[in-house]
Structures are given as structure tokens and as C-alpha cells.
Amino acid sequence: DGRLTYNTGLPDDMASKIEANYGIMEPGMGGGFSLVLIKVRSEADVATVLRAMDEGLDPMKWICMVAEDKNVVSNGLYVLGIMASHDQCESIVQAFVSGKWN
User: Fold this and answer.
1) What is the pLDDT of residues 53-92, one digit of tens each?
2) What does pTM read for this prediction?
3) Of the four listed, 26, 53, 93, 101, which is most buried by Cβ atoms within 10 Å?
4) What is the arithmetic mean of pLDDT over 29-46?
5) Which of 90, 57, 94, 59 minimizes the C-alpha distance to 75?
6) 2 Ramachandran zone, left/alpha/beta (phi>0; psi -120 to 50)
7) What are 40's strand-pairing partners?
8) Which H or E run includes 74?
């Protein structure tokens, strides 16, 4: 139905590689910020899912707003995609990779 691609940047054929539930955080109004966190089913698929998400996330998905920066990283079986200001992307990625969510 297109929600997987809109929310995560992943094509529908990647659905079998990730857990059915994933987290997404976006403001209800305003746009310009999106954070998605997914769990990949197999360690062997993490790099494939990461690449697909990086290629598929669209910083212009809100039509009237544009995210300044985009970053996709993994930590174990988890893949995080962030679209936001450059500073927000950097700090969130650093916290995710280091495991320090302060």
C-alpha cells in the first residue's frame, strides 16, 4: 500500500527482510524531520537494507518542506534513518552508534 516506502524508504519487496513493526517519528505538521528505526531479521541482510533505505529516503517527501540532511546507519540488527537539519542528523547518529541516548 506504499506506507513502507513512504515511511522507511524501503521498497515493498524488502518487507520480508525486516520485522513487521518499526518506529517512525515525524511531526504532525511542519515536516522537515523524520526518524525511522527498523530491526532487520538477519545480520546478513543489514547492509542490503541500509543501502536500500539510504537510496529510498526522500528529503523532499513533504512537498512544502525539505530536510537539510539525511543519514542512514546501523547498529547490530537495527537500522536508523534520519532526515533533519545537519546538526540534528549528526547528534542523533552519534548517539545511536555510540549507544548514548542522553
Assistant:
1) 999 999 998 888 899 999 999 999 999 999 999 999 999 9
2) 0.91
3) 53
4) 91
5) 94
6) left
7) 18
8) strand 69-75
